[in-house]
Each structure stands twice: as C-alpha cells, then as structure tokens.
Amino acid sequence: MADTGNEKEPLQLTYYCFQATKKNPPQMKVLLELTADEKRLDVSGRQRTPLRFVAVIDESYSMDERIGHDRLTLIERMQIFAELMARDFKDEDQMGIVTFADDAMVVLPMTRMDSSGRASALEKIQNISTRGQTNLSDGILTAISMFKGSSGSHFHNGIILFTDGQANQGITDAAELVREYNNKMAGLGEGVCLPISTFTIGDYRPKLLCEVAQNLGSDAFFWLSDDTDFEVDMMIPIFLRETCLVSNIRIALRTLNGVTFDILKMFSPFMVSCAEITDNKTAAKYFIHDISADMLKHIPCSLLLPKDYKKTLQDKDVMEVHITYQDLENVEREICTKIPFKSTSLGEIMKNDRNEITERKSKSAGVPTKENNHGNRHYSGPPTRIRMDRSTKRLREPTQAQMYVVAYMYADSNRQSEMNVVQRAQQAIVKTAQEDCRMVTVGTINKAAEFVDYRDYSYSLRLVNGGIDEIKRIKSEVRTIADEDSRTIVGNFAATMIDSLGYCVTLLEDPKESDWARMKAMESSLANESPTAGGVFGGDKRPYLPPRVERSIQKYRAIVNLRKGPKSPETVKKLCGDAKRNTKAVLTTRIFKNRNFALSDKLIADGNKMGSKETIKELLIKHGGTPVPFMYDSVLLCTKEEYEKNTAKVRDAKANKIPVLFEEFIYDSIRAKKMMDIEGYRFA
C-alpha cells in the first residue's frame, strides 16, 4: 500500500492507473485525484477561516447600458452584487472595492466587515458611478496591492473582477499582465494565495480576460447571461472560499526508472509554466489555489514506458508524487508517494478472483477438492451451479480485451479496504475513461472556439461532432473491459459530456457574437472542474456545483428577487435592508437540515408529485437537504419500479446498509413541515 496520507489527512490523494499492453509505443495513464473531505476533519464548533476579498468593478461609460427584464443598468447590478458581498461577510472578514476606467480608484480600502465597516461599505457602494474607458490592468494590479502586508496572516483570499468590454487602456497583452501580476505577488511575501475570478457579459470576445483567468485563477472563467440573476452567480467564488478546506496546493511530479512524460497530453489549467517544461520529459509541476468541500480535482498524467518495460520495471516505481499544502489552521503539510508498476492484467485478476469464489462456494456446497501436481487446487465431482449477484458478474470468463488491460488504484487505507482487487481495477477503468471523456470535451470546445473566433462556424461544427464521435468510441471501448455497473457509470458521464457538446452544436447552428465567450466559459468550467454561472450550459445545468454552494445561490437569489425593479441606489438600499430583516420569511422551513439524500435516476429525471415546477432535487435543497451522488451517510430515495428492478443504486444502498425510501417521504415531510420517521417509508 502506497503512503498517500492517513485517515486524518485533510487532503486525500487517490491515483488510478491504466495500461493497454498492446499499444505501441508502450504507454501508461495515471490519474491523480485530489479531494478534501471534511468528514475526516474535526470541524464541529470550529469557526470558518476568515475571508478577505476585493471586488474589482469596471465603471466605464458602457456600464450605463440597461439589460435584462428588470432594465437595471450594469453599474446598478454591480452595486447589488457589492452589497451582497458586504452583507454575506462575517465580522472577522475583510472587504475592499476597486473601480477602474481610465485609471483605477480604491473606493473602499481593505475594511473589516463589522457593523461600522459594513455601513461604510454600503455607503461607498451607493456612490459608484460611470466614467472613462477600460484600464483593466490598473484595476487588477491596484487590487493586488491591497493585500500587501498580509504575509503570515491566515485568510482565504480572492479577487472578483468584472468588466463588460475590451481593455483599451493600460496593459493589453496577457503575457505582460501575467508578468506584472507575478512581480506584484512577489512583493506580498510568502504564503499569500490569491486567486482571481473573472466575470464578463455581452457580445464581445474578451480574450485578455480569459487568459487572465487561465493563468491566475483556479475558478472557472465566467460568462454571464443578462437574463439571469448574475449578481448571485458572482458570489460563487466567495461561496467556494467559505467552504475551502485546503489551500496553496503545490504538486511536483517526477518520473522514475527510465519512464518519461508525454507532456503535451498532460496540459491542465493547473500546470505551472507549461511553455517552460515541455522540453523536460521527466518532471511536471501543478498549482491549485484551494479545494472546497465536496469537490474533486484531477490531474491526468501520460507516461511513456521503455520498450523492455516488462523486464526493467518489474517491482519498480514509475512516478514520484510530492504535494505540499496548507490546512485550515494554516499548517504546512505534505504528501509523498511513489506509484508502482503493475503487470497483472485485468483478465488475470478476474480469473484469480473467479477461482477463489468458486472454491469458497464449492466448499460450502460440500464439493471435494484436491491438489494437482503443481500444488494448485482443482475440483472433482460434478460441476456446481453457482448463482452470483448481478452487480459483480465476477464469475464471467474474462474477455480477450481484458487480458491485455492493466488497471489498478490506490487510495487511503479505509477506501482501499472497502473494495477487493477486481473492484479497484474496475474503479480505475471508470475514472480514466471519465477523464478521457472530459479531456476530449475540453479540447474539442477549445478548438471549436478558436474557429468561432475566425467565424468559421461550419468547421467548428465539424470539430464538435468529431468530439461527440470520439466520446462514443471511448464509451464503446469501455464496454469490452468493464462490468455492468462500471459501464453504466461511464455511460452516464459520457452522456453528460455529449450533452455539453450537443449544446455547442445548437449554438453553432444559429451563431451569435456571444458564442465565443459562452464556449470558453463552458471549457473553463470543465477544465477547472469548477461551477460556472447559470445559462452557460443551457437551462439550469451547472456541472461541479457543490450542494452547499447551490443552497447559498438559491438563498441569495430569493433576496435579490426582492430587490429587483428599483432604479435608484436609495431604493436599492432600502430593499436591501428589508431583505436582510425578512430573510427568514423568504426562506422555507429547513426541515431536512444536515441530512444527505441520494436520488434514483428516475427521480432525477422526472418532476415531483406536488404539482410544483421544481424538481425533487430543488425541493430538497429548498428545504435544507443536501442531494449527494454517493451512497454513504445518506438515504436513497427511489420509485417502486426501480426498487423492484434492483437497479445499481438500489444494490449499492443495500450493500452499504443505506435506508431505501419511497419518494413520498419528501412530500409528506414538506406537507407536515417536519421530517417524518423514515421507518414508515422504507421498502420492505
């Protein structure tokens, strides 16, 4: 077992390895998965880490444009956003505001958000007005300077940047702006982690802003749809920092024993200085600003093995992983591990597992066994028919394809012990196939956006359709080596990626000027595994949105809806105050507070039975519950039909001794305004 950390380690590393042995030259995929699980941490009674944010707001004359159904100006909507920030922050948090036009102005210096600081912030926000052109670089660099002198102090920091137009003043070259950013950051001292989250709106192509996001932030690049409550979407970086569990994550990878990196296949937004390391085939570095609760971050690695790898790598390691990061107490921690080379194929471990199961079953059935000449056991007497659980299918004879696939995973000791060797191999197949689908989708959207920039929409459309075909090919390959449950998981994930590309097809069939920014926002969300603004993926789809962040969005959307309509800052202020006082009246009873619910596939797809337009997932969130995709520390809600069919989720729930309930449990609890006793809603 590799040392990937212990059960008390805030940051958990799991890695999945996959090799198709017939490929030439010999290659190997290694997928690193990082997660921060607060269930492992003692967070009860602990105050969250204080926040320190600067809002950087464009106040050029174009911000006077009125948009959306409420016909507020952009500057008025930025005032609402800034007020949301001020009212969300706790007394120990700090907030600053910078506006930029021809130059940058500090509207609010870094201020503690106690009662007097909040009052000062709200007064300053009302006085923001439009002026001049768009000096984006001055706004960013001025904001960074406001964090000076903070070395050694422990905050979760952030800059939220909004502009509605191209930079036409100051530094307009992305590479030069990144250099200036790095120079400014060097002056802040050691240990200051400062992600930048960039937001834009409108029908232009904000290339500079997009490159700033790619180089300086671990959140997605955000494009906003003017028919949504995007003031709330701009709070996403703050919600993520509020639930952040680890930060300042530095990952150093080094190949061993003659193995090299296929570095061009390893690009990620988290990669450090990609241009500088492409010539170095044995080392790679990555940096992630932070990881919030309920989020995963993946780093794909592509390894080139020596031609005689079966001899030279036997019982040796192929890669070394060294991770340093800061925990909630600002303590520096590290994880060091080496990834071993394995040569046993999936087919071979399935055969071994099959023989062990058959032997156990035969013993229980009283079938005699004896040793053969090689000391191996074989069976005498009549064959025994063995009935196995459908979810494992472990007695199935391995296919030819499975005989040349090597797949394995390593995790912390708890997760490792929960699965046998076949299940770990299947998990590696699932994860690497999902990552392949994700990377195909990211690369396809990125390339298609390039040709959208050239207004070659027909070629962009061909690229997107090609990406859809490639994901279908990956899905088809998995069918030859994966068990039923694994095929289902990969199939569902592949369908999600195909849906994203399908939405690109819809955009390209009726192209608009805003499509470039929207597609870049889609790509950024998928590449960073970070939630994005509403409307980017069409409808209400928001990949990678953690349940708690989703609840915060719904809460603040209700408050913002109360404020919409007023045109003057004075009226906005009044409604903001009223909304704060009446928040409890806006929010529904949180009868499912601190309870996790897994939903069956049919309940996710269908509506609910209460006559409401809300989905059952939305009902759960509205009443304080947390929909989760996994089967622990939760209950499973499903339909009678799914329970009788014994679907994969039902089997997982039974295996983990998770209660399986009728969906009526939710409706009856909401009607009674209290959570009903689950025992009355269990399936027999």
TrEMBL record:
Spans annotated as Disordered: 358-386
Alphabetized SUPFAM superfamilies for the sequence: BRCT domain, vWA-like
* InterPro entries for the chain: BRCT_dom, BRCT_dom_sf, CLCR, VWF_A, vWFA_dom_sf
Domain called VWFA: residue spans: 50-236
Pinpoint the BRCT domain residues. Answer: 589-673
Q: Name one Pfam family in it.
A: VWA_2
What is the name of the protein in this document?
Answer: Hypp1786 protein
Q: Please name the taxonomic classification of the source.
A: Eukaryota, Metazoa, Chordata, Cephalochordata, Leptocardii
